[in-house]
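Appendix C. Worked example: Histone deacetylase
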Amino acid sequence: MEAGGNSLPAASGGDGTKRKVYYFYDPEVGNYYYGQGHPMKPHRIRMTHALLAHYGLLQNMQVFKPCPARDRDLCRFHADDYVAFLRSISPETQQDQIRALKRFNVGEDCPVFDGLFNFCQTYAGGSMGGAVKLNHGLCDIAINWAGGLHHAKKCEASGFCYVNDIVLAILELLKHYERVLYVDIDIHHGDGVEEAFYTTDRVMTVSFHKFGDYFPGTGDVRDVGYGKGKYYSVNVPLDDGIDDDSYQSLFKPIIGKVMEVFRPGAVVLQCGADSLSGDRLGCFNLSIKGHAECVRYLRSFNVPLLMLGGGGYTIRNVARCWCYETAVAQGVELEDKMPLHEYYEYFGPDYTLHVAPSNMENKNTRLVLEEIRSKILENISKLRHAPSMQFQERVPDTEIPEADEDQEDLDDRWDADSDTEMDDTKHADEQLLKPPVQSIKIKKEAAETEIKDQEAQKVTTEHVKTVKTAAEDTSCPKIPDVASMSLDEPSGVKLEQESSNQPADHPPAAAHSKP
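Step 2, the predicted output written as structure tokens:
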């Protein structure tokens, strides 16, 4: 079977020009634990951070502890009752909420664990905070490796994802940028994000994923969007064993054409690492350098970039990948020999940053890849260049507090009338994003079209509130002295405590020993 080549040469930092990079990290994030045997392990974020610290990458960027997203932030996309459920559910109370667990798809792939809602607040707060920094022009690239949970839906959890931080971050970016591009290189289809923006021309979603008898089962090349969003959803279905050369033979021409035609003001890149060779749940054969080539290529356009995590279940390789991609974002090179650090033993026996891809068969033939590329480029060419959006009433920018204020109560940033002010801007938000975010996937079958259209009209009204916004901040003050930062409680760095901003009914994150 004719297939693509092997691995690409080392990815560099793009054009070599340094970028101003902001990085969001909460030292508690590694303590959250999905449960014994569950493949999703937030501990990988802490391992990534340890590598960043010991490679000296923290010195090249500003480090922020994310401000937890509040209920009102999460409800910009998610249903109120779903957010209330996430806040209330706990391992102790779940037996009393069997019907709600089933309704919101929580319990198996998406288990209830200690500190679940705090975890959601943390990773969503990092992604929204990065979007705010980009909106204010404070950095070129913002990174939140804890984010990228792309399967979560408006009213339910899915695929290890509870809150869709990506949708929330894009809604934040849409306050400032007329058009936002979302690119997903996770092995799984970015269904939650595509579904949210399926009917708008202001967000283009491009997903490269395994397709065919594979979770979540969506992402056919023929799924292109609906209504005003037609051709603004791009799906690149791939088969097992795709390697670096084959992947880039699609990624670069497709993304290049998208950038030329759509001309986004900002880009969100979901860097799911389960598309790497050897992933516990994956079946692709990308090297870390090949995966990072996607970062390098998007970085080269010099458009504001939000980089997020996502899947990745061989956690030593996840940490390797996201460390290297942080270096690519900064425009620096790293030695392959790994420095000694807290989790050094995870990376044996070679103790190197890079690992060789396997010799698995590439089932993606050149002929099939060329057909997919031609079809997608043809669809993109049907778009009118750079759709314009007239701002009839501009939504206020989110305010950012001063980084050096002495532990003031961060809730003071919003006065007692803040909810009223939010409601006053609702009309402006409705005008900002037309058509509104929609959570109903339009099916291709003609027999279902009429029913789906009726549902879409009904849900459209519900979704007006998803672009509801307030003039509030979603990122907390900067962590000083990042050069000396190490793993959990880095020496030389005192993370500013946010106790005054944490509701009293939030339990602390539960610490678990990893299996």
